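Example for tutorial group B:
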C-alpha cells in the first residue's frame, strides 16, 4: 500500500466522529446508571439513537476512502502484505484492550454498570463487546474487500452493488458468525467510502437545509416507525445520507480548535475512553455526586483528553506505542 499525506478535513471528521463515539457510549452508561433524570430519558434515548444512525457507518466509510486512495493494483503478493499489516495493526490493539477491559470489568464487577463475566470473555472470539467490535468488523471487511474488488475487476460501483445485496441478505439472515455478519452488515459503508468522498462540495445553504431536514425526519421516524420492520431499511438510508452530509460539512474548509486539540489521537481515544469515563463515573458516585450535567461534562472531558495524555506520554516511551501502532513501532525500532 502506498503512503498518503494526512488530509486535514478527514482528520477533523474522524475527530468529530470519535467525539460521537465517546458521547454515545457515555450517554448509554449514564442511562444504565440511572443518572439521567426520568423526565429527560426519552430525549437522551433519542440522542443515542440519532448518533447511532450514522456515526459508526461514517467511521467505516472513512476507512473505505483511505483504503481506496492508498491501494495498489491487486496482486497476491500485495494482498498478503496488506493483510498481514492489517491483522497486526488491528488484532494486537483488539486483543490487548479487550483483555484489559475484561480484567477491569471482572475486578470491579460490583462497581460497574454491567458485569459481563464469562460471556464477555467468550465473545472475544465471535461476539465482541462494545466498542471493540468495530476493530473486529473492520478487520473482517479488510480481509474480504480486496478479493471481492478483484472479482469485480476493481469496479467500485459493481462492488457497491455486491455489498448492497449482502446488506439486504443480512436484514433477513443472521449467521451468528461475527466475521460473516460484519462483512454483510457493514461492508456497504466501506464501499460507500470509496464512492461518496469523491462528491463535489455542495453549497452551505443546501447542506444546512439538508441537515435540518435530516434531523426533522429522524425525529418523525423515531416517534412513528422506530420499532417497525421498515426501520431497518430507513436506517441504511439515514446512514448513507448522514455520511454524505458529514462529508460536505467537513470538506468545506471546516475548522475547529477543539477538534484540532485531539484529532491526532482518535484511535487512542477510541481504545481508551471507556476506561477513563467509567472510572471517573464510579469516583463521582462514591463522592455522592449524581448530577447528570456534571457527569456528562467531566466524563466527556476525561474520556477524550485522558487518552490524549496517555498518548503523549506513550510517544515519549516509544516501545509502548506497539499497542497502538504495531507495524510503525516495529519499523521505528529497526531503524535504531
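The residue assignment follows.
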Amino acid at each position: 500500500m502506498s503512503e498518503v499525506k494526512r488530509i486535514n478535513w478527514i482528520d477533523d471528521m474522524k475527530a468529530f466522529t470519535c467525539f460521537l463515539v465517546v458521547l454515545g457510549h457515555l450517554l448509554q452508561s449514564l442511562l444504565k446508571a440511572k443518572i439521567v433524570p426520568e423526565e429527560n430519558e426519552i430525549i437522551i434515548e433519542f440522542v443515542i439513537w440519532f448518533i447511532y444512525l450514522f456515526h459508526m457507518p461514517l467511521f467505516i466509510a472513512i476507512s473505505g476512502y483511505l483504503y481506496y486512495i492508498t491501494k495498489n493494483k491487486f496482486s497476491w503478493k500485495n494482498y498478503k502484505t496488506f493483510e498481514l499489516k492489517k491483522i497486526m495493526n488491528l488484532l494486537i490493539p483488539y486483543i490487548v484492550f479487550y483483555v484489559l477491559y475484561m480484567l477491569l470489568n471482572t475486578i470491579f464487577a460490583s462497581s460497574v454498570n454491567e458485569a459481563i463475566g464469562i460471556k464477555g470473555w467468550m465473545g472475544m472470539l465471535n461476539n465482541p463487546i462494545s466498542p471493540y467490535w468495530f476493530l473486529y468488523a473492520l478487520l473482517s471487511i479488510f480481509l474480504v474487500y480486496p478479493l471481492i474488488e478483484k472479482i469485480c475487476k476493481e469496479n467500485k460501483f459493481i462492488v457497491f452493488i455486491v455489498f448492497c445485496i449482502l446488506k439486504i441478505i443480512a436484514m433477513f439472515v443472521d449467521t451468528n458468525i461475527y466475521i460473516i455478519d460484519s462483512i454483510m452488515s457493514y461492508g456497504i459503508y466501506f464501499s460507500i467510502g470509496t464512492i461518496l468522498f469523491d462528491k463535489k462540495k455542495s453549497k452551505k445553504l443546501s447542506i444546512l437545509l439538508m441537515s435540518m431536514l435530516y434531523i426533522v425526519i429522524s425525529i418523525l421516524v423515531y416517534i412513528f416507525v422506530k420499532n417497525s420492520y421498515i426501520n431497518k431499511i430507513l436506517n441504511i438510508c439515514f446512514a448513507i445520507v448522514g455520511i454524505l452530509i458529514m462529508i460536505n460539512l467537513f470538506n468545506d474548509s471546516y475548522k475547529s480548535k477543539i477538534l484540532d486539540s485531539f484529532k491526532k489521537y482518535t484511535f487512542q481515544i477510541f481504545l481508551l475512553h471507556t476506561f477513563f469515563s467509567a472510572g471517573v463515573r464510579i469516583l463521582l458516585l462514591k463522592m455522592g455526586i449524581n448530577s447528570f450535567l456534571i457527569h456528562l461534562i467531566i466524563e466527556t472531558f476525561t474520556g477524550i483528553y485522558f487518552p490524549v495524555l496517555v498518548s503523549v506520554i506513550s510517544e515519549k516511551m516509544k516501545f509502548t506505542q506497539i499497542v497502538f501502532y504495531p507495524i510503525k513501532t516495529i519499523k521505528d525500532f529497526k531503524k535504531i
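Residues 110 and 282 are 11 Å apart (CA to CA). Compare this with the pattern of hydrophobic and polar residues in the output above.
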